[in-house]
Amino acid sequence: MTNTELKIKANEVRKGIIEGVHSAKAGHPGGSLSAADMFTFLYFEEMNIDPKDPKKKDRDRFVLSKGHTAPGLYSALANRGYFPVEDLKTLRHLGSYLQGHPCMQETPGVDMSSGSLGQGISAAVGMALAAKLDGSDYRVFTLLGDGELQEGQVWEASMFAGAKGLDNLVVIVDNNGLQIDGKVEDVCSVYPIADKFKAFNFETVEINGHDFTEIREAMQKARQTKGKPTAIIMKTIKGKGVSFMEGQAGWHGKAPNDEEFAIAMADLDKIAEQISVSE
Amino acid sequence: MADVKKIATRESYGNALAECGKDFPDLVVLDADLAGATKTGIFQKAFPDRHIDCGIAECNMTGIAAGLSTCGKIPFISSFAMFAAGRNFEQVRNSIGYPHLNVKIGATHAGITVGEDGATHQCNEDVALMRTIPGMTVIVPSDDVEAKAAVRAAIEMEGPVYLRFGRAAVPVINDRPDYKFEIGKGVTLKEGNDVTIIASGICVDSALQAAEKLAADGISAEVINIHTIKPLDEELVIASAKKTGKVVTVEEHSVIGGLGGAVCEVLSEKAPTPVLRIGVQDRFGESGPAGELVKKYGLDGEGVYNSVKAFI
Q1: Residue A216 burial (CB < 10 Å; 0-12/13-18/19+)?
Q2: By percentage, how much of chain A surpasses pLDDT 90?
Q3: What number is the ipTM of this complex?
Q4: How far apart are CA B79 and CA B68, in angstroms?
Q5: Which helix (H) or strand (E) holds B79?
Q6: Residue B4 — pLDDT band, cuts 50, 70, 90?
Q7: Could you say which of B11, B19, B58, B251 is catalytic?
Q8: Using only C-alpha atoms, what is the Rg of chain A?
Q9: Which top CATH class is B187-305?
């Protein structure tokens, strides 16, 4: 896909996030929107997957370690054809297969249940290890929040992945700079992030997480890196794409009301127009 | 009794893994720097490529096992019960229990028979913790024969299983041709009419000894080995309680939430019966030789005999 096509898709993914969270009257739009470009790149460009065969044995795997941004993952999966986009509106409703946090038994395309921070990366490491044990060449991607790096298990998992040289593992950090209680550096600084992963024997790449050229180059570097895992640390804007959510910690885990929903969708429509005009 | 064969169930665990390694090519064993103590080293020797030492990081080991299982492996994670069930509780609950993954937890050094290491390492709460996780099977084998059978049965079933093994050598009590192990099925070892003694793990032997002494006093005790705490063999427990009218539970675990708790839950709802729970009372353990601790906490044959006598 060209960058323009990816931008259009990412905007659709963002709309799906807003639709879902608005309908649920709950959920986590901020971190879903900041990672929307990465979700889009993974599911529309990078990963070897088949929406018609979600359990395909040799598929690439994705673990959403920051499981609260399930609306972003669900929207990417729906837009990619795993299930109807219309169903995003059932997010968090009683009886829906779109649980508040990812549930692998319920949702087609979800490779691992997650939501308790720090645990997803370990599962991703286990999948990468399974590929090595079996001599398979599938790859494993996992997305973490920057606040999530405060969980000790992240570093247990990173130490193992680095020590065992799991070069089929890509750890992506969504560095939107905000967590529930405020800025990550004020709550309990996680910086410097890249140096930490380097010390754990990772190849590291620092990029703008909203620039598809940079995302593409980072993924290429990860694919070419042998003998160690790669960490992609992407600077992002929490709430990206929705004017009143951008850079606001308050929109970490809050749903827009009807009025805010209308503004958000108008914001995204405007972005869609700009994409078609500029390209 | 001096010539009774004694084997620690952790030893049985290691041997069973090594034996099953040939039959189950997807079996992989994970440890957290305790391969010598948990006896997974026996498996490691036979299948070095399928033994993964995760270092001292039990929570990560649990997540790795979850990931491995989603890719078709049958992982066993091994550590002391304190860490496998205690430190790890939330990882087991969310990364294994909630997605109902095919991970087996081999927890060794459970209970007070850890001995000299003392309270920090004597986990008397693991069965209670694991039992509350939906879909988790919980097995507490009583000896070498049962431990080995339990490991194989756990591999053969789909879904998470918690297996509890001990550090200290214990008598082999199930070495008989008609022994059959079935997950969820209790075993009546001795029929009786006056009182039912339901035991698990190393306390099954104590229950048998107590029953012998009770018989000498003219008291007929029924002895049931409940190796599977969950799912509990409710039918057997209820039938025996109805027959004898008095139930005693014996376990090397807190009296809160383990075998005693499970038996009381089912009887209070389905066949109200007076129950005495023998086990570790609401307290922490302490350092000392395993055998002396078992005596001090009243879990040996003599202790169980005295408690049952006072109860009936």
Answers
A1: middle
A2: 98
A3: 0.96
A4: 18
A5: strand B74-80
A6: confident
A7: B58
A8: 17
A9: alpha beta
Residue A272 in contact with partner chain B when CB distance is under 8 A: no
pLDDT digits (tens, 9 = 90+) for A124-174: 999 999 999 999 999 999 999 999 999 999 999 999 999 999 999 999 999
Q: Which domains, ranges and CATH numbers included, belong to chain A?
A: 3-278 (3.40.50.970)
**In this complex, is the C-beta atom of B71 within 8 Å of any C-beta atom belonging to chain A?**
yes
Asked if B161 contacts B139 with a C-beta cutoff of 8 angstroms, the reply is: yes
In this predicted model, what pLDDT tens digit does every residue of B223-271 receive, in sequence order?
Answer: 999 999 999 999 999 999 999 999 999 999 999 999 999 999 999 999 9
Cβ–Cβ gap A134/B28 under 8 Å: no
Q: How many CB pairs under 8 A join A and B?
A: 103
Partners of B171 in the beta sheet? Answer: B6
Tell me whether A123 touches chain B (CB under 8 Å).
yes
pLDDT in tens, B224-237: 999 999 999 999 99
Contacts of B30 in chain A (CB under 8 A): none
Give the mean pLDDT of chain B: 97
At CA A77, angle to CA A73 and CA A78, rounded to 5?
Answer: 115
CA–CA min distance B67, chain A (Å): 4
- Which CATH entry fits the domain spanning B6-171: 3.40.50.970, 3.40.50.11540, 1.20.1250.20, 3.30.70.20? 3.40.50.970
Q: How many CB atoms lie within 10 A of CB B159?
A: 15
- What residues contact residue A186 under an 8 Å CB cut-off, 6+ apart? none
Residue B284 and residue B297 in contact, taking contact as beta carbons nearer than 8 Å: no
